[in-house]
Design a protein that fits this description.
Radius of gyration: 15 Å
Shape: globular
Largest sheet: 5 strands, antiparallel
CATH topology: Beta-Lactamase
Strand content: 15-25%
Number of helices: 3
Order of helices and strands: EEHEEEHH
Number of domains: 1
Length: 141
């Protein structure tokens, strides 16, 4: 169970890839999948939470980078913020063995497949087939 989101520095969802099936898919509307609008709202909300948590700092003299993980009963969310403000978000099972390693590899694939693509405009939705294949290979493991 994994889902990757890429959120640009303005809080817009520029990439979303889902690789799991909801256990009760047959009895739920849309098979348990969220609509594209719901993903956009979630990405914007997470962006806002990340910005707020970056300002919460109970330890004097130490810089806080914002929300890095959120644990729930059935899933966990890992956030990796890049130096440019782009956020890579992995929603996965709490039992996932190496979510940070997967995020790092997704970021490397993004740098190689997307940012080096002369037809890609930064901060816009990602539509690069090579990146889709790389993410699918990383998330289906």
């Amino acid at each position: 169970m994994s889902s990757l989101w890429i959120i640009n520095k303005a809080g817009g969802l520029i990439y979303q890839s889902e690789h799991f099936v909801h256990p009760d898919a047959a009895s739920l509307p849309n098979g348990g999948r969220l609509s594209s609008n719901e993903y956009l709202v979630l990405a914007g909300t997470l962006h806002g939470i990340h910005a707020i948590t970056a300002r919460l700092n109970p330890v004097a003299g130490r810089k806080c980078s914002g929300l890095e993980s959120l644990e729930a009963d059935g899933f966990s969310i890992r956030v990796m913020a890049t130096a440019t403000g782009t956020k890579f978000v992995l929603v996965t099972s709490p039992a996932h063995p190496n979510p940070l390693g997967v995020l790092q590899k997704c970021y490397e694939a993004y740098a190689d497949q997307v940012m080096k693509n002369p037809f890609y405009t930064p901060e816009m939705p990602v539509r690069v087939e090579g990146f889709d294949r790389a993410v699918e290979g990383l998330l289906k493991v």
